[in-house]
Amino acid sequence: MRVRGRGRAASAGPVAALLVAAVLAGCDDGPSRESKEPAAGSGAPGLPRSLDWKHCDAPEGGTAPGPGWRCATLDVPLDHAKPDGETIGIALIRKTATRKSERLGSMLFNFGGPGGSGVGTLPRAATSYRELNTRYDLVGFDPRGVAASAGVRCRGDEEQEKAYHEVDRTPDTAAEEAVFLADAADFGAGCRRLSPAVLPHVGTTNAARDMDAIRRALGDEKLSYFGVSYGTQLGGTYAHLFPERVGRVVLDAVVDPTVDSVGHARNQATGFQRALENYLKDRGKDPAAGTRRIADLLERLDRKPLPTASGRELDESLAVTGIVAPLYSQSGWPALTAALDEAEKSGRGDRLLQLADSYNGRDGSGHHDTQAHSQRAISCADAKARPTAAEARALLPGFRKLSPVFGPFLAWDTAGWCAGWPVEGEHDTPEVSAPGAAPVLVIGTTGDPATPYEGARRMADELGEGVGVMLTNEGEGHGSYGESACVTSLVDAYLLEGKVPADGRTCP
Length: 508
Description:
This protein is of the alpha/beta class. It is built from 17 helices and 12 strands. Strand 6 (223-229), helix 7 and strand 7 (246-254) form a beta-alpha-beta unit. Helix 1 (16-25) crosses helix 12, helix 8 (261-282) runs antiparallel to helix 15 and helix 9 packs antiparallel against helix 10. The longest helix is centred in the middle third of the chain and has 22 residues, at 261-282.
């Protein structure tokens, strides 16, 4: 299990609220910069002269968006090093600005993951961006390897159910460890078998180049962009590649660009433990005692899973996922209380299993979406590190100290996530320096579980002096726009009027 800023959980206001609602209801030194700028519609390789906007079909597993939304597909090179070669289609969705006479251009969104569908998410989150829609066309897209943009697929529902049933994500014996690593390698082999053409080309650098193709196709001189969670890494990568084309850019719930995959796991152990302790304090519980109680519950589940009404069992791995999901937003805390009470007092796992299923993209019929497939493919294409099982074991004491609840899972995840992956990773850490770029507003929330606050300051620093503008939101949850009135007003003033907040400002 990997905890992350998934598309369904990308922002505490617009998008993590969607997650909680769904849960409760059911290899070189870095990319080189790009410089030459083809004119919009100039017939650059792989690009059409204009986008053909049509009524939108329902995305897989969802419903068609309401009136006002239009969809299109942009052909881009599968391999940007071969611009005249094979192409893939990037799925787009748009809602045009409501004040045509005051239109500023397009605002491109990425809500995180990696692996989240912008085509599916933006219409559901759009009411939170109503003010921005007065002067911007709201534009979402499925990044390459995601959903309708040549989405990666790695295994079927039966294989996934078998893995949930048979694989212990915190192996205690040599036999459990062998099963854990074999399943990880099998997942990667499935990606190569089912998605052979796109798998080597799904990294963040290529997605950033696709974003510039989208900008050109939309006819915008500069890119205006709102990135959340993983979308902040994508935005930072774009700024590094195309600093002169950066328009008004906001990065909210920020991925730390200075750490490798092990450092990212360590950050998340810190962040989710911090969120858990804040939750326990809010419920009038001692954080240390509450953490021990939950860790003890997980140990019992490792030995004997709890029954559920569905006939499936709640094991340790699914329980941790069920605890993670409602920590993305304070609105999910009551559901976490009810689920823990049911498990501890009634000996039932129904509520925690429901929370885990929603987070894992599993519906009531046992069908799984493929967001986790895309997420793994993209992150393994990005990250060069491939920690071994021995290295994961060595991490365990430190990770347990950081979080007795989440630490063991995240330590083992460093070895299992990209084990035997068929594609080599690109870098140790992403390059986001963007000298000469326009100001980029970087927002960190002090209680963010998935992308801890400290990473936002590092992103602002890495973007460079005069580029990264730091805004602190004192609060809970994964993201701040739409949740904090102070943050929302400052972001709107920046994006709509060009008023850049003072670097270092805090919203209490």
